[in-house]
Amino acid sequence: MIRLSFALLLAGTALAATIDPGPVPGLRLLADGLPGSANEVTKAPAPVLDVQLNGAKVELEKTKLADIAAKLGGEINTTGEESNFAWLCYAAPAVGDVGASLTWFFAVDASVQLVSGIAVEYAPDELPPGCTKLETPLGLTTGLPTIGAPVADLDTVFGKATADSGIPGTVAYMFGSTPEGNGFVSRTEAKFITGDTHILAASVMSVVEEE
After folding, report:
1. Which pLDDT score, from 0 to 100, does residue 97 have?
2. Lowest mean pLDDT among 9-13, 18-22, 65-69
């Protein structure tokens, strides 16, 4: 099996702002991946990724970062060798008692800038460079467990985890399969950082694999 992945590196000059977003948990969870295995979801019914942003649908590998920026504001930033990795970051108050959160929208290919992944985590006291502060909740839902949800929700949605992610307090799940042609399929990988009782960071991304 071949997995097309990416690493996050500090870049040089770019047309968009070039900023190192720093080693925040949600960003590292999405960009760097996990060294171990993802749980292959066999639970029925299978989970369904349904990303909504303030009532508007966001589709991985279809929605552009520019579409997100047009709705929320903010500047598209780039990092990576030759500035080949683009992203948006937003800090927003959360609904209920979850607390403020950071939300990252990523594009693996900065030349196309289609959203390939989203990560959400608790906001630090000081915002990372390049993050835009919002005064109202982001209104982002994915149809999957996210920060503040009980850890038990992971078993409910994905089934009991058996694969070792390689890092304590983290878990990953793989589900769905959409043909991309030439023997490749696009799948969804959901990753989580968990506390004793609740989810601390969550991400989803599109992963292209050999069929």
Report:
1. 60
2. 9-13
Mean pLDDT of 182-196: 90
- What's the CA gap between 101 and 141, in Å, rounded? 13
pTM of the model: 0.84
Nearest to 169 by CA among 140, 141, 198: 198
The candidate with the shortest Cα–Cα distance to 60, out of 189, 192, 193, is: 189
Instruction: State the SS3 of 74-123.
Output: CCCEEECHHHCEEEEEEEECCCCCCCCEEEEEEECCCCCCECCEEEEEEC
Q: What is the 3-state secondary structure (H, E, C) of 2-60?
A: CEECCCCCCCCCCCCEECCCCCCHHHHHHHCCCCCCCEECCCCCCCCCCEEECCEEECC
Residue 101 CB: number of other CB atoms within 10 A? 23
pLDDT in tens, 142-169: 999 998 899 999 999 999 999 999 888 8
Taking residue 114's Cβ as centre, other Cβ atoms within 10 Å add up to 19
Going by C-alpha positions, the residue among 183, 180, 173, 168 that lies closest to residue 153 is 173
Confidence at residue 24, expressed as pLDDT on a 0 to 100 scale = 54
- Distance between CA atoms of 175 and 40, rounded to whole angstroms? 6
- The Cα 33–Cα 10 span in angstroms is 17
Q: What is the pLDDT of residues 38-49, one digit of tens each?
A: 999 999 888 999
Half-sphere exposure of 165 (CA within 13 A, CB side): 19
